[in-house]
Structure formats: structure tokens, C-alpha cells
């Protein structure tokens, strides 16, 4: 048989066979618009059109929460929310706006058990961190924002942990996975107003072993930053246990 005599043919055959198998297991359609995916986007699972439709966060940024500032108001480097509210982290960075394709993908990742989207979405965070010079050289470890154990049981995985692991691997930093714990269940932040969100998470985080974080500069990782209430409370718990600088990196805001 031809395929047995010519290894290159056999390799090509095998590759076609395997990619056929992959297509069977993971239908090759865009996760957002459901159109057929071009072959070079199979791994990402999002077609070029949807991918380019993701609204990336671009400068000017608020120097505290990382939200995009109105470029028509020059000279300001802090947003109105951060003037009113004290956030306990030093600076947050978010890769894109929480809307459209990004919002859809985050929902599928979080609630649709699509763990594999962690790599696609994690890459957006890494690109943002590199483009806008998140100072990784000072970071000693990556801390994913934990879920309460009841919520973890319900969802089966912590999306922040998947994203945190990806970011940590790319920047060759250790993950301090169990640094933080949720002391009590909290209501879903999305159901609450801005002020309620801060009350909802107040003192809801604790550091399991302060030896894990004392004297360390940390990067807190979560999927979405809205008011910053959750990240701020988590950062406060870390700082009370002796952490140094606490930066926050999220996928969207
Ligand atoms: Zn698409
Ligand atoms: Zn701000």
C-alpha cells in the first residue's frame, strides 16, 4: 500500500484522520456565531470575525481600576468611581470590555463547562499584560480569586483558577492556589447594585496560611471586574496578612 511505503503520505493520512476525529469530538464551528471555523482557528474555537469583534481595553486607563477612561477628558487618570470608592488593590488590568462576543464566551466558559476556553481567554489576558507592561518582574505569585465551596460544587471548576494557571505558566510564576478562602457564601454580584456589591463581599475572604503571602507581591486573577468590590476585598485580606503590592488581572471589565 502506498501509505505504508511512503512515510510522508502516511503522516498526511494520519493527520487528516486525526483532525477528522477532532472535528467529530469538537464540532468545528465558532462558539460565538456558530459558523464553520477556518482550519487555522480550530484551536481557538472562535472565527476571525468574532475574534476581531472583541472590544479590547485601550488607553487611557484609570490608574486604579484599569477601566478605560474617556479620551475626550484629557489630564484625568482616575475614573469617577475610584474617586468615590477606596479599592484595596494597587492597580487592576483588564483585557477587554465585558460585552458582545467576550461576554458570550465568558458565559460559556463559566456556566457551560467549557474549560477549554481557558486557553483562548487566558491568551487575551497575557496579551494585554504584555502590551500594557504589567510589571511581572516584581510579582512573586499568582492568586486566583476562589469560589465558595458550595459554588465550586455547583460549577465543578473555578474559572479564575483556570485563567490564573494559564497566566502563571506563560509568565513562569508560581500559583498560590489555596492562599485565599471564602469564609461564607455570598450572593451573585450580578444581581446587586454597586453599593450592595461592596456590602455583599465585605470580610468574605480569609487567608488560609499567612506564611503563603507575607512579604510577597501578588497578582490576583479573576474573570470579570465590575465594581472591583470582589477583587478589592480579596486584596484587603491578602494585605492584612502581610502581602506587599497586589495587582489584579481580569479578562474583562
Ligand atoms: Zn464567529
Ligand atoms: Zn477607576
Q: Which features would summarize this protein structure in a list?
A:
alpha/beta; 6 strands; 253 residues; binds zinc ion; 12% strand; 10 helices; Rossmann fold
How would you sum up this structure, described in words?
The structure is a single chain. With 253 residues, the protein is an alpha/beta fold. It folds into two domains: 2-27; 57-252, Rossmann fold (3-Layer(aba) Sandwich). Helices cover 40% and strands 12% of the residues. The protein contains ten helices and six strands. It has helices at residues 2-5, 7-25, 48-53, 80-84, 100-111, 117-131, 149-155, 159-170, 194-201, 229-240, and strands spanning 91-96, 141-144, 180-182, 205-207, 218-224, 246-252. The strands form two sheets. A four-stranded parallel sheet has the order 1-6-5-2, sandwiched between helices. Strand 5, helix 10 and strand 6 (246-252) form a beta-alpha-beta unit. Helix 6 crosses helix 8 (159-170). The longest helix has 19 residues, at 7-25. It is globular and about 65 Å long. Residues 30, 32-33, 35, 46-47, 49-50 line the site of one zinc ion.
